[in-house]
Structure formats: C-alpha cells, structure tokens
Amino acid sequence: RVHGGRSRHMVRLGCTVRVTPLHGPVVQGALFDDNENVITIQLDDDSLVMFPTSSVRDVTCIDSKVRPGFLQTLPAVDTKATQTRLSKAIEKEKLLRTQVGKGVSSEGQALFDLLAKQLPCKWESDCIVVANQVRVSPPYQLDNIVGGNDSSRAYVKKAILALSGTP
Asked: Can you give the pTM of this predicted structure?
C-alpha cells in the first residue's frame, strides 16, 4: 500500500518506484517500507530516504519486479559509533550556538565570524573577546578595541578595516 497524494496503490516491497514529493527532487528506488506515516525508499547505493506521507504528491510503480540487491532487512547498527556521532553532533551544535551573539548588530556578528576563522573568539554579552586578550565592544569600530598587545590589536584592526572595505 503506497499513499501518494490522495491515491492509494498496492505496491510490493522491493519494486522500483518513483516518489514525487510536494517539495524537492523526484526520487527513484526500491520501496523498502510503507506505513501510514512514512514511505521509505532504498536507493541504488543502498542508502535509505524517508518521506512523510503528508509530503508526497505521488508514488508511481516503475517496475513491479523486486530489484536485485534489495535489502530485506536493515543491516546491524553499530550503536557505539552511532552514539559517538550523536555526541559529536550535539557538541558541534552547542559550539555553534555560542558563536552567535545575542542582541548584536549584523556588523558585530560579521566581525566575530571573520575573527573566529583564525583565532579563538567568544561573546561576553555584546563584546567580542579575541584569544582571551582583546575586547571589541559595540559599535565594533577601531576606537572600540582594548586589551592585548600591539600585534593582536593590529590583527583585529585589519579585520575591522577589511569588513568596512577600507584597505
């Protein structure tokens, strides 16, 4: 049973189907699973693509024969590797969230992003702290740089000038 838009078709698992989502590209592969909420397609590289049935415009059976190499069941999952990947993804997301200033101007965020490409940076309220030495406060201009040594301040000044388009 495949639910495509309003139509309902009887299609055998493993047969080749074309899924036309409401948004995004058409996908073709073997029907891996079909339930009331999700249609799962196995691609040629054996990866799986899942579509919420509510986001599918149409499902068309291309070939009713079971595709050679069709996975009858999912391969074993390495839960330790999966947990490691999840932990890394969560840590990366936490780091990314700390790099977005709250209530800062777009110029301030652009300066932070530029400086953070080369040096460790963090937000302290609306001030950018570069390498735990230099602070840049709003409005993030040359006069708003304090701390650090001459070379670290010069680096921050170059970044501000680069963003302002001044050579």
From this structure: 0.51
